[in-house]
Amino acid sequence: MTNSGASSGRLYYESIAKDFTRQQIELPVAVSIFKGDIFTPPRSWGEQSYSNLVYWNELAQGGHFAAWEQPKLFVDEVRRGFGWARQK
């Protein structure tokens, strides 16, 4: 085992403590939507929550565990999403 259970569960614990209310995020954000995921939000939701949305892409392959299901596609998305940071 990787001892990652607590860190994985922390997201849910902290989100429930805040009643899942939307919070404005001003940091640069890259979003990749994998169509096989449980929930696929529309871009308009991302634009409402992220004032600095630098990348948005919707992919036909992959699901909730995209890094495991489509590792090459996932890595390509990370590179595309944060490629702007390498240019600075």
Describe this structure in words.
This protein is of the alpha+beta class and 88 residues long. It has one domain (25-86). The chain contains 5 helices and 2 strands; from the N terminus they run αβαβααα. Strands 1-2 form a two-stranded parallel sheet. The radius of gyration is 15 Å and the shape is globular. The mean pLDDT is 85.
Low-pLDDT ranges: none
Measured as a percent range, the helix fraction is 40-55%
Describe the sheet with the most strands.
Answer: 2 strands, parallel
- Oligomer type: single chain
Alpha carbon gap, first and last residue: 38 Å
Percent of residues in β-strands: 15-25%
Radius of gyration: 15 Å
Along the chain, the helix and strand elements come as HEHEHHH
Write the layout of secondary structure elements.
Layout: H1 5-17, E1 29-36, H2 43-49, E2 53-63, H3 66-69, H4 71-81, H5 83-86
Features:
88 residues; alpha+beta; two-stranded parallel ribbon; 5 helices; 2 strands; globular; hydrolase; Epoxide hydrolase; AB_hydrolase_fold
Concise summary:
The protein has 88 residues and is α+β, with helices and mostly antiparallel strands. It has five helices and two strands. A two-stranded parallel sheet has the order 1-2.
